[in-house]
Structures are given as C-alpha cells and as structure tokens.
Design brief:
The chain has two domains: 2-276, P-loop containing nucleotide triphosphate hydrolases (Rossmann fold); 287-533, Rossmann fold. Helix content is 36%, strand content 22%. The protein has 18 helices and 21 strands. The chain has helices at residues 16-28, 52-55, 70-78, 90-102, 113-131, 151-163, 188-199, 217-227, 246-252, 255-262, 273-286, 307-320, 341-344, 361-373, 383-395, 445-450, 470-473, 519-533; strands spanning 2-8, 34-40, 59-60, 66-67, 87-89, 136-141, 169-176, 206-211, 234-238, 290-297, 323-330, 349-352, 378-381, 402-404, 412-417, 432-440, 454-461, 463-465, 478-483, 490-495, 501-504. The strands form four sheets. A nine-stranded mixed sheet has the order 11-10-12-13-21-20-19-16-17, sandwiched between helices. Strands 5-2-6-1-7-8-9 form a seven-stranded parallel sheet, with helices on both faces. Strands 14-15-18 form a three-stranded mixed sheet, with helices on one face. β7, α7 (188-199) and β8 form a beta-alpha-beta unit. α4 (90-102) crosses α5 (113-131). The longest helix has 19 residues, at 113-131. The chain is globular and about 70 Å long. The chain starts with a strand and ends with a helix. The structure holds glutamine. The site of glutamine has 11 residues, from α15 and β17. Glutamine (GLN) is lined by residues 354-356, 382-383, 386, 406, 460-463.
C-alpha cells in the first residue's frame, strides 16, 4: 500500500481538501484505485450536529454517516463511494480509547496519547486500507500544523512513516504564498510552517503553494532551498474560478510525475475523461446561453452551506451545455410582504434546498407558491419537498393551517414525526440517513427523469409526509410519484400541467458527479432553458 499524507500550514481555508481530491484524481487517471481518509481533529463525534454557518454543509454518505464537506469533494473528484470509516475525528478516537479503558482492556496500564491514542488512529487507518481494494491511501489531516488538536494525528502518521517501506510513504504540505502590494511573492510563512512540521518529525516531500498568481521559478527555488525539498516538488497552485481545473493545474506542474517517481509507480492507463469534462466547461463559459436559478435558503449568504447543490448544478449545466448564474435569496426577505416579482422577475427556475427550523420557512413557502402559480420551473429538496407539500395542502387542498410539526402547533400536521421517532432525545443519529431505494410510479415526470422504476438516493431527514393526509393532498394534478418500498413513506411530489414541478424527500445532490450528473438536476435545468428560450 502506498500512502500520501496531506497536511496544511499557515492558515485554514486554503483548499487542502480540493488539493487532495485533485491529487487523487490525477493518480486515478493513471489507473490507480484510491482510498481517501479525512481526519477531522475536532472533538465532535461527527459533523451531524455542526452548524453549517461555521462548517459549511453536512455531507451525507451512502451508509448514512454525516461528515465534513471535504468527503463530498473526494467522492466527486475521485468518483468513489465512501463510508463512515473514511472520516476519523478526535471524538471517535477518544471515545473508543475510553470505552476500552473502562472495559479494562488496557490491563491496568496508564492510558496515554502515545501509544494508546496513536495506536487507535493507526489501527483505524489500516483497517480502512485493509477493507478496500485500493492501491493507494490518501490521508488529509484537517486543521493547520501547530494546532493542539492535530498533534496526536501527526504523531500517528509520523510513526506509520517509520513502520511502512521507505518508498511507500509521501508527505504533501499545502501552504500559502502571499503577494505584497508590489507583486512580490513572500515565502516566509511557508518556511515557518515547514519548520513547525519538521519539529514534529515530519519532512514534506512536496510543497503545494497556494497563491493568487502562479509562482515563478525563482520563488520556487527559494522555497526548495529553505524547506529542503527538490525544486520540481514545489508546486504552484494559484487561485482558479473553477475547482475542476485544479487536477489539470497540478498535472501541468508535474505533480503526478513526481509522485509516481517517488513512490516508484508506473502509469497503468491514461484516462482523460476529466480533461474532456473540463474542456466542456471551458467551452461553456465562453458560450452564450445563460440561465438564472434562484436558490431560496437560510444561509444564502454562506454559499458553502449548499456546496453539493452548487456542484450538482455545475455538473448538470456542463452536461446540457448552458451557463447558470445562481441568485441567492434569503428566505426571510420574502416574508416582509410586498410583491415577489422583484425577487423572481428575471429568474428561469426556483430551487428550495434542505433546511431545518422555522426561520425563513414561510418565505420558502411563498417562493414555492410563486413558482407554482407563475409556472416557473421548481425543484424542492428535502425541506423544500416538505414545504412544497405544505404549500399545496394549504392552497390546493384547502387545509388552511397545514404545517409541519417541526415548525409549531398546527391542526393539520401534514408533515410530522413518525411514531418511532418521537421522544428521541439524543441529537445525533435520529434521522433517516443515507441510501434508501425510491420506487417510482409509472407514467410520471419522475419516471421520465430517471428512466427507471427504482433508484437509490441519499436521505437526511427526521420528519415525513403524514400518511393520514395523503388522500386529501393528492388529486389529478398533484400527486406523489415516488415512495419507499412500503409505499407509505412519500419520496417525490410532482405537479402535472406545470412546466416543471418536482420535489424530493431525498437529496439527489449527494449522488451527482462531474461526469455523472444527477437526473433531477439535468431535467430541472433543461426546463429552465425552455423557460429562458420562451
Ligand atoms: N427539517 C426537515 C426534517 O428534519 C428537513 C431536513 C432536511 O432538509 N435535510 O425532516
């Protein structure tokens, strides 16, 4: 097994996750199977209860694990399916160690960070590797070198380096190279962060320099000299508008060639699907068709909280060859009264994403009503599906006070908790999470979109359509076209005699890949293009 460990220096938010995902991609293009692992040094057990304001979206894996959004980038870039064991947090590691201590399994020893915690970390990494049939394991250590929290993890990979073969281990350090107002690149922050790494016994083989502009050879030479790496191993990774360009940029800098040489690997094949996809994207940004999609959300100002939706839109747009401009609308702004035309006049489609809680919910319902009554293509996802059910219950089925029991007292809880979920106090893991089959009714828009009767999609919700209300909500034009296997749990709502109105209880955005866009997103954008053309 070959290991590549990616660490970060200077500050967070440098795109370490994208860097690692891109390294994975360029190695995959050469025929290697990759297994990625994300280490999150925070004490939380998982990302499920974390505020999207601080952390960006919570990404959901097939097995239902709620993880950091970097795992979404790995899945999209490397086209892999990951599970909960691919995300290791301090919370997980410590709770396992403490549990073992309570069971007396340490036989009276003093339980310490070294070796007990570091052993637990190494065992977790190796168990993921053993279960996979990958050729290479890529490990991203979250946080910045020097953080207290990441110390045990850096110590664990340091030990692993000594335990594995010399040619099987490689360290990549991602740093920042700022430019002065005079346009001079400064290498000192990089020097300092490499020094911090050296103090921990880790020596980088490759330094990826994040910067505004491309680094020239003299700056690379300086970094190589001060940081004791080869000049060809100093990689310039300047800012780009399109993250999907990053693998090509790293490739051009010779990153893959250097890694292959260091790890003594041969190229097994040449896969250029990614390059072709990026070329389609470039052609698109020069193209002319440009539609506007409104996203009505709660954290609209913080676009990272809807990252997978943004990416799924990009994938579908690349596929159908149109440019998409996103118009972020803060749901609460729709609640103050006044005409909604000012918000939606120029948009060709409205998307209401997932969400939690009462703030902004009525604004989202207004947006749905606007889409429905003005014949604007609409896609509702999860909370967006539930609110669409509420909207049609109120307006079409005339259940005036219909609501979700998540949002307050109501005589008509059309969205409610299932019996089995009531009274659960633990905040983690009470949702219906991960991959579930969805069964699609024949002769519906949903069937046309997917082209099949059974699909697998990811879920993350606590509330459900209340079965007691289905009969009153459904009629000829408004109906549920997808359910779970039992037929009791509603999964898709659609309206016929509308240009496009689809809402899903599941999150199709999590299954979308750059070269395999999600069918509902493709269909939605196609409907937006028709709206644009007409
Ligand atoms: N708040 C809703 C629920 O818990 C929807 C969740 C979501 O949109 N992810 O069911």
């Amino acid at each position: 097994m070959k290991y590549i460990v990616v660490t970060g220096g200077v500050m967070s938010g440098l795109g370490k996750g994208i860097t690692m995902a891109s390294i994975g991609r360029i190695l995959k293009n050469r025929g290697y199977e990759i297994v990625p692992i994300k280490i999150d040094p925070y004490i939380n057990i998982d990302a499920g209860t974390m505020n999207p304001f601080q952390h960006g979206e919570v990404y959901v894996l097939g097995d239902g694990a709620e993880v950091d959004l970097d795992l979404g980038n790995y899945e999209r870039f490397m086209d892999v399916e990951l599970g909960r064991e691919h995300n290791i947090t301090t919370g997980l590691v410590y709770s396992a160690v403490i549990e073992r201590e309570r069971k007396g399994e340490y036989l009276g020893q003093t339980v310490q960070i070294i070796p007990h915690v570091t052993n637990e970390i190494k065992a977790r990494i190796r168990s993921v590797v053993e279960k996979s049939d990958a050729d290479m394991c890529l490990i991203e250590v979250g946080g910045t070198v020097g953080d207290i929290e990441s110390m045990p993890f850096l110590e664990a990979v340091r030990q692993m380096h000594g335990e594995e073969n010399e040619n099987d281990f490689l360290f990549v350090h991602v740093t920042l190279v700022p430019f002065t107002t005079l346009g001079e690149p400064k290498t000192k922050p990089t020097q300092h962060s490499v020094k911090a790494l050296l103090e921990l016994g880790l020596h980088p083989d490759i330094i990826v320099c994040r910067s505004k502009k491309a680094l020239k050879e003299d700056a690379k030479k300086k970094i190589a000299m001060f940081c004791n790496v080869r000049q060809e191993a100093v990689i310039s990774a300047q800012d780009t508008d399109d993250i999907y360009e990053v693998p090509l940029m790293l490739e051009q800098e010779g990153t893959a060639t250097y890694i292959m040489k260091k790890l003594q690997l041969e190229q097994l094949k040449e896969d250029n699907d990614w390059t072709k996809m990026v070329e389609r994207r470039r052609a698109l940004s020069a193209g002319n068709k440009s539609i506007i999609v409104a996203i009505v959300g709660k954290y609209a100002e913080l676009e990272d909280s809807y990252l997978s939706i943004k990416e799924a839109i990009k994938h579908a747009a690349t596929e159908i060859g149109c440019k998409v401009e996103l118009k972020w609308i803060e749901a609460e702004d729709l609640e103050v009264g006044g005409a909604l035309n000012t918000f939606f006049d120029e948009v060709h489609g409205i998307l209401v994403p997932g969400g939690f809680g009462v703030r902004g919910a009525e604004g989202k319902i207004k947006a749905i009503e606007y889409a429905r009554t003005n014949n604007i293509p609409f896609l509702g996802l999860c909370f967006g599906f539930q609110l669409a059910v509420i909207e049609v219950a109120r307006d079409v089925a005339k259940l005036k006070d219909a609501n979700s029991s998540e949002l307050g007292e109501t005589p008509h809880p059309v969205i409610a908790l299932l019996e089995e979920q009531k009274g659960v106090k633990n905040k983690g893991g009470t949702m219906r999470l991960g991959n579930y089959e969805v069964f699609i009714r024949g002769d519906t828009l949903a069937e046309k979109i997917y082209g099949k009767k059974k699909v697998l999609e990811r879920h993350r919700h606590r509330y459900e359509v209340n079965p007691e209300y289905i009969e009153r909500i459904e009629h000829e034009r408004v109906f549920f076209s997808g359910t779970d296997r039992s037929g009791l749990r509603m999964e898709i709502l659609e309206i016929s005699e509308h240009p496009f109105f689809i809402a899903t209880q599941f999150h199709p955005e999590f299954m979308s890949r750059p070269n395999k866009p999600s069918p509902p997103f493709i269909a939605f954008l196609k409907a937006c293009v028709r709206e644009y053309e007409h």
